[in-house]
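Anyone? Bumping this.
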Amino acid sequence: MNTPHKTKGIADRDIELLVGRLLRSGVITASCIVLIGGIYLLLQNGSSAMPSYHHFGGENASYTTFQGILSSAWHLNAKGIVQLGIVVLIATPVLRIALSLFGFALEKDWLYVIITTIVLAVMLLSTIGGLKI
Amino acid sequence: MTILTFTLILLAGAYLAGLVGSLTGLGGGVVVIPLLTLVFHVDIRYAIGAALLASIANSSGAASAYVKEGITNIRLGMFLEIATTVGAVVGAMLAVYTPTNTIAILFGCILLFSAAMTLRKKNQVALTDGSRTAAFLKLNGNYPTQAGVVEYKLKNVGAGFSIMTVAGILSGLLGIGSGALKVLAMDSTMHIPFKVSTTTSNFMIGVTAAASAVVYLQRGYMDPAIAFPVVLGVLGGAFTGARLLKKIDPKVLRYIFCAAIVFVAAEMMYNGIQHKF
C-alpha cells in the first residue's frame, strides 16, 4: 500500500492482516461460547413452554450488566454463558479499533492516530454509559 | 410451542436470513427484523437487539476476508466511523423516545430504499482527480482487480460524512447496519469504485452496530434465548452465501429479492400504521 514506512517496520498491509485475523478469531470465539451456552440452555429448558416475546419485559440485571453477566456465566448459568458470548461478539469491533490505533501509532501516522482515538473514545463512552459497571 | 421447537425454527429462519442477506449484500439484520416480528410476533425491541448482533456477526465474519484481499480502505472506514459511531449512539438514545410503530414504519421505508439501491446503476470507474480534503486525509487508495492494481481518488468528503451520520442514526434507531445508505455515501457521493464501497461499508457495519449494541444490551433488548439461534444461524448462512456467490447469477437473485423486500416493507408499514407492534 501507499505508505512511506514500507521499508522500516510495520506497513498498512501488516495492519490489514492483523485486523482480519482479529475479526475472524473474535467471531469464532463468540460463536463457540454462544453455542455451548445455547446447547446447555436447551438441555435445561428445551421442553418447557416458550416465553411470550410479544410483550416486552426486558432482561434482568444478571444479563444486562457486565458484572451480572460475568458472575452468572461463572456460576455456569446457561443464559449467562450465551450472554458472555454476546459480549465477546460486541467487543470484537471495539478491539479492532484499538488494534488499528496501535498500528497507526507504529506507522507514526499521527493524523490517523487522532481519528482512531476519537472513534475509540465514542465507543468507550457508549460502553461505559451503557454498561452499568 | 416449546423452547426447543422455537429455537430450531428460528435457527433455520436465521440461516436463511444470513444466506439471502449475504447474497444480496443487505446483511442479516434487514431480514431478521421482519422474520422475528411478522412471523414469530416477537416485540420489535427484542428483534432490534437480535438484528444488531446479526449485523456484527455478519460484518466481522465477511470483513475478515475482504480486508485480507486488500480491497477494503481501512483509512476511509476509520475516518467515516467517526460519523457512524456518533450517529449510532444518538440513534440508540432516540430509540427510547420513539414509539415502536414509528420504528416499524421507518424500517419499512428503509427496506424500500434498500431494494431500490440494489437495482441502481453502480459506479465502476475509478476517479483520477480527487479533492484536496481527500488527499489531506489520505483517503485515496488502490485495490486489486483482475486487470491489476487500480488507483482511485475521491471527492465530496463533507457530503459523504453527512450521509454517514444519518446512516449511523438509523442504524442505532432501527438495529440494522444501514449498508445501503453507507454504500450510497461512498459510491454515489464520494465516487469510490463499487467494490471498495461495499467492502468498506461491510467493514464499518460491525463498528456502527457495536456502538449502539451496548446501549441495547443494558436496556434488556437482548434476550439470550433469541440471540443464540439468531447469531449462529445468520453466521452459518453468511458463510454458505459467500461460497454460493460464485455459482449463482446475482442479477436474477437481486430481482427476486427486491420483489420480496417490497412486499415485506409494505407489511411492516401497514402493521405500523395499524398499531400492531
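Late reply, but here is one note on the structure posted above: Chain A touches chain B through 73 residues (CB under 8 Å).
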